[in-house]
Amino acid sequence: MSRPLITLVIPTFNEQKFIEKCLNSVEKQTIKNKIEVLIVDDDSTDKTVSIAKSFSKKLNIKIIRNGSKDAEKGKKIGLMHAHGEFFMYLDADMEIADTNWAEVISTPLIENKKIIGSLARFKPNQNQNALTRCISYDIFQRDPLFIFLTPDIRETIQERKKEYLVCKFKQDNIPCQSLCLYRTNILKQLFKDHPFLMDNDVPVVLVKNNYNLFAFSSKVGIYHNLLGSLKELFSKRMRGVLKTYMAHLPKREYKWLNLEKKRNIFLLGLFVIYANIVLPATLYGIYKAFKYKDMACLNEPLITLVSTDSLIVGFIRSKKGVRSLFKL
């Protein structure tokens, strides 16, 4: 099977703690000679760039300046510089878990020209801390609130292949996800006038333009060192609401929750109660611990409480206030 070039874009800002492991995982890919790595750096003041440059003899790697202090704009910059037939972005604190990942995830796009994107999953890693492992048992590493509110990818399955699933997304039924290998030329065409690439907005724009077939393989995945502490979880969710979600709200495509529907207001309120009572989430955490044989899952009630309440606090503190919720 002929393998097209894959472009991996990695936005960075002071990522010296993670970038070496991230690039090592790319370097271990069985088809690394078919991978172009674009580091879109936002004027890092640490050793991020020098570490990335040290891989120049191991990988086809280039450093591009961002300078906007916006990772989503960095992804768009990377897209416009991509030479690969296929395109995906990674965060610097991610590691590719399987050496054949690039082969497996690109195969559906090679076999079926109608498939627009091949979804990547997250995996738990025993080297990760307990908080990260707990949340990584969800294939898209969603907070408990988002698991409750967003569609499950199993609802979209159209066909089961030996190595992957073929999924058909509908406008009102697009699963929450962030990592996906796309066809570069289509993204460049549809996003040429967009100033940035927002994770979950991309599939929405694609579906609106009748690109609705996606692939998903659960056999390979990515490790994401998402959480260091509950304080970090709170800060990330607050920052996500105030600096990412609210900052780009008028341009957002993905609707986490349509609060114009009374049923959704009821569901949101129900989950807030669920999170703050704590006991139900504790029981669910015990169930997860037995299911996955990992005591890290006992952190479920803490993650549920902190992630839910931080998002609520973030929306309330936003200058756009509660009124913005009705634009979700």
Quick structural overview:
The chain is α/β, with parallel strands linked by helices. It folds into two domains: 6-224, Spore Coat Polysaccharide Biosynthesis Protein SpsA, Chain A (Alpha-Beta Complex); 230-327, no CATH class. It has twelve helices and ten strands.
Description:
- Strands 1, 2, 3, 4, 5, 6, 7, 8, 9 and 10 form a 10-stranded mixed sheet that branches.
- The longest helix is centred in the C-terminal third of the chain and has 18 residues, at 300-317.
- α9 (230-245) runs parallel beside α12 (300-317), α10 crosses α12 (300-317) and α11 (279-292) crosses α12 (300-317).
- By secondary structure, the chain is of the alpha/beta class.
- It contains 12 helices and 10 strands.
- It has helices at 19-27, 48-53, 71-81, 101-111, 130-136, 144-149, 184-190, 201-208, 230-245, 262-277, 279-292, 300-317; strands spanning 6-12, 35-41, 60-65, 86-89, 94-96, 115-122, 157-160, 165-168, 180-183, 213-224.
- The protein folds into 2 domains: 6-224, Spore Coat Polysaccharide Biosynthesis Protein SpsA, Chain A; 230-327, no CATH class.
Catalogue the unreliable spans.
Answer: 324-328
- Estimate the mean pLDDT confidence: 88
DSSP helix count?
A: 12
CATH class group of the largest domain? Alpha Beta
Binned strand content: 15-25%
Fourth CATH level, the homologous superfamily of the largest domain: Spore Coat Polysaccharide Biosynthesis Protein SpsA, Chain A
